[in-house]
Amino acid sequence: MATTQLSAPPLKPYPVIPILEVGAMAGTKSFPANAQIQQALGFPGELVEDWHDKAIAKLGELLGKYRSLKVYLDACVHCGACTDKCHYFLGTGDPKNMPVARQDLLRKVYRRHFTWSGKLFPKLVGAEDLTKEVLDDWYSYFNQCSECRRCSVYCPYGIDTAEITMAAREVMDSIGLGTKYTNEIIGKVHRVGNNLGLPGPALQDTLSSIEEDLKEETGLDIRLPVNEKGAEVLLVTPSADFFAEPHVYSLMGYAKVFHAAGISWTLSTHASEAANFGMFIGNYAQMQKIATRVRESVLDLGAKRLVVGECGHAWRAAYSFWNTLIGPFDFLDPNYPVPQHICELTYDLIQRGALSFDKGANDKYVVTFHDSCNVARASRMGSLPGGQFEIPRAIIRAVAHKFVDMNPETIREKTFCCGGGGGILTDDLLEVRVKGALPRMEALQAVVESDGVNFMATICAICKAQFSKVLPYYKFNMGMVGGVHQLVGNAIRLGPK
Amino acid sequence: MTTATVVFALLLYAAALLGAAGLAWRIRDYARTPAPLKIPTTPAPTSTGGVVLRMLREVTLFESLFKANLWIWLFGWMFHVSLALVLARHLRYFTEPVWFWVVWIQPFGLYAGLAMAAGLAGLWARRFLVERIRYISTPSDHLMLALLLGIALSGLSMKFLDHTDIIAVKAYALGLIFFDWQPLPAHLGLYVHLFLVALLMGIFPYSKLLHAPGVFFSPGRNQADNPRERRHLAPWAAELDKAKL
């Protein structure tokens, strides 16, 4: 691990597009999954003998299943609009981290095998066969993409590198080349029910101790119910909320909201994970299998509403995919959106005057908000487009006095990834993570200097973990990052009104 | 009937056929390939009407490109709008009597020819001058610009430098449409122009020019943001669904 000498790139007062450094990140590779991890998901344990033919066949299969892949591989004109949009390129200068160049790693193989021009005139159209060198590039660079979709905002054809990365990862998994981080976690969810591999009894213990902390803090019996049949709401939240800091403060925030609003709710040990890493590897069946636990839990517990905690890609999976993967949800209360984001729930309660706040409790903070990529560019909250930007900000304004936004080029749908999304949040990719955080850190630095910002709220477990790790590399306090419901929890008035 | 008349007639027929058939094949392929998941780039319109508007903005104003890079947008938009005007202006060679609006846009079409060449030159310059774009450019990226610029310049040369017999050209064009071949004027600029146009038509569906139909099939742009309201299920996913639940 290259952790000893790793230092962050310098923060510049304004964004600068780097000079190309060819091959700068070629050697930075996510640890490969071992045979046991791979086979648990039904993938080959190691690189198969006839990997070339198998890979081409898999690519052909995916081209028939995903219109996105087929159209996106055809449509690119190399205009260059995306070349300066990826945080990993901006942080590393490696040209293969430019979205178009990353796509071209797959596109050149597609051209060689699936287009006439590439079969007849490979040199002319930049077509190339899948050699071992190309496969090595795939493994390096498709595991340096966080599938954040920022490039797709700017592409004149909406080409989404995330779709290309997912396809490439699926091809690699099918020939035995998975990453340890993502595939091990998927296995844990299948076996235990959550990414952390936290078994039911341990989860119950943890929740009891959080209840004690809440009692100590508030003097009230604020509950964190688990597996309670007949509760109105089933909350599915990233398992990091149970264990990690600052995540757990948001969990406490949810509990306080439910308590104050008098909504009966429960967690589930069977579906103790909102995250769905099946998405990261572009594997529909894995994604469906993970999501199925949620359907089973909500049916088993008889809940009437399905609410999702603070997690970016989980909200994409829930909002955009659950209805497809595990729907329909016609047995749930039709008066509420299914699934509903915890921010939607809290915002709705605020609108109805059901919650009151002591905003002074957050006066020690000057707050800014980091839009998480999957919430910003792959989902929605509320009934209007863009609600995913307005609702979390409205909540923050309702619970804190001091709020400022970062540079408009770095928020809302133009937000920069934290640098850890899409299966990159692993220490073997620490260099990628630290450098990839550069654009966000520059935007943060600007509001720290201009407005004294000392708290960056976000609604994603990965963002929280990633920032906690990389903020110190940029000389920021790691405690600067936290959840929106952490702020809610600080300010909410509990007990009799 | 000169050799050139016959050669160009056959060439243009072949190119049109190759282009149209290939395009129909690609479009059919796109249309029949399922999109199993809802993946619009959000914020996205929540209704079909909104999607139509988004797509219209995308293909007429190049909205996303405008957000991305003003230089590429300027040159790219200038080229495409000019090309549309130039093509419309050329309708006068294929219609008799000439439609009133085609008559009306003639002078604009002429300026558009110049703007088109300027836009292409700008786009091409970027491929040399900007390091990132130089890195991603393939030989075909350069050749495509050369081809389009060749078409523009050979066309402009016939307007500003060396006129051809435009009446005879029109007779030739109408003759091709009605399978009643008329002689093609012997003119080098015209030969170059027609040859390059035939080449462009022929390679259209086998090249990156597929971005033109492709944009309409891009799930990131053509899907409505309504996954909670409406269950979206592709046929192959529905099969899995039956097996699983």
Structure description:
The complex is a heterodimer of chains A (497) and B (245). Chain A has 497 residues and is mainly alpha-helical. Chain A folds into two domains: 35-185, Orthogonal Bundle (Fumarate Reductase Iron-sulfur Protein, Chain B, domain 2), CATH 1.10.1060; 196-404 and 453-491, no CATH class. Chain A has 23 helices and seven strands. Chain A has helices spanning 35-40, 51-65, 67-75, 87-92, 99-114, 116-120, 122-125, 132-141, 150-154, 161-174, 180-192, 200-218, 240-243, 247-261, 284-301, 312-326, 342-351, 373-378, 387-399, 430-436, 438-451, 461-470, 484-491; strands at 233-236, 265-266, 305-308, 340-341, 367-369, 455-458, 481-483. In chain A, α22 links the parallel β6 and β7. The longest helix of chain A is centred in the middle third of the chain and has 19 residues, at 200-218. The radius of gyration of chain A is 22 Å and the shape is globular. The model of chain A has no long low-confidence stretch (mean pLDDT 96). With 245 residues, chain B is mainly α. Chain B has a single domain, classed as Fumarate Reductase Cytochrome B subunit, CATH 1.20.950. Chain B has helices spanning 3-32, 48-61, 63-68, 70-90, 100-104, 106-129, 131-136, 139-160, 166-177, 188-203, 211-214, 219-222, 235-244. In chain B, α1 (3-32) runs parallel beside α10, α4 (70-90) runs antiparallel to α6 and α8 (139-160) runs antiparallel to α10. The N and C termini of chain B lie far apart (71 Å). The mean pLDDT of chain B is 95. Chains A and B meet through α2, α3, α5, α7 and α9 of A and α1, α3, α7, α8 and α12 of B.
